[in-house]
Design goal:
Chain lengths: 111, 117
């Protein structure tokens, strides 16, 4: 069971916007910066968002991140069929139980 | 541009030691402030952070692996390694090497390791 809670799946039609949530605690999201990763089947994860809201070079501005309290959110606007993938949040955990934790992942289906 | 590439045996017997290497190209494994991590993903499941090694050699491991992990750097070959001992079927996963600790900005393509007799 993952420390960070994500919805197992979300779906939306092309052109629509979708939100993926990531819920944690005061020792992880509440204290440290969240990153988001996109993973296509059979491929390695790819960094989408770091430091809660920053995008690496080359990542579309259709992807945006935010954080409030012990939760983080990834928003994808103007959905495209090529966005269909798994999305994971991750954060450093300041408690001693596990230094780095990931969410369980959210499967995005573009209808 | 820095690239990572994992290598190692695809099959390991139970109770033996899994050893993987990650080659760093396009950059140096001992460049300033670089953290090198290992992350794994069991088939059909989520990601699990295994640990990192800092370019100066200090390490930080996931306590859930109960002292079975050792990471090392080989600066002459620009690579870093993972050793996981006393493996069981639960260690079957795709193993990724990655750069970073607060976020992982570069990943290897991953290597599948199956633990089976």
């Amino acid at each position: 069971q993952s420390v960070l809670t994500q919805p197992p799946s979300v779906s939306a039609a092309p052109g629509q916007n979708v939100t993926i949530s990531c819920s944690g605690s005061s020792s992880d999201i509440g204290t440290n910066d969240v990153s988001w990763y996109q993973q296509f089947p059979g491929a390695a994860p790819n960094l989408l968002i770091y430091d809660n809201r920053k995008r690496p070079s080359g990542i579309s501005d259709r992807f945006s991140g935010s954080k409030s309290g012990t939760s983080a959110t990834l928003v994808i606007t103007g959905l495209q069929t090529g966005d269909e993938a798994d999305y994971f949040c991750g954060v450093w955990d300041s408690s001693l139980s596990s230094p780095w934790v990931f969410g369980g992942g959210t499967r995005l289906t573009v209808l | 541009q820095v690239q990572l590439h994992e290598s190692g045996p695809g099959l390991v017997k139970p109770s033996e030691t899994l050893t993987l290497t990650c080659a760093v190209s396009g950059g140096s494994v001992n460049s300033g402030s670089s953290y090198w991590s290992w992350i794994r993903q069991p088939p059909g499941k989520g990601l699990e952070w295994i640990g990192y090694i800092y370019y100066r050699g200090s390490t930080n491991y996931n306590p859930s692996l109960k002292g079975r992990v050792i990471m090392s750097l080989d600066t002459s070959r620009s690579q870093f390694s993972l050793k996981l001992n006393s493996v069981t079927a639960a260690d079957t996963a795709v193993y990724y090497c990655a750069r970073g600790w607060s976020a992982f900005d570069i990943w290897g393509q991953g290597t599948m390791v199956t633990v089976s007799s």
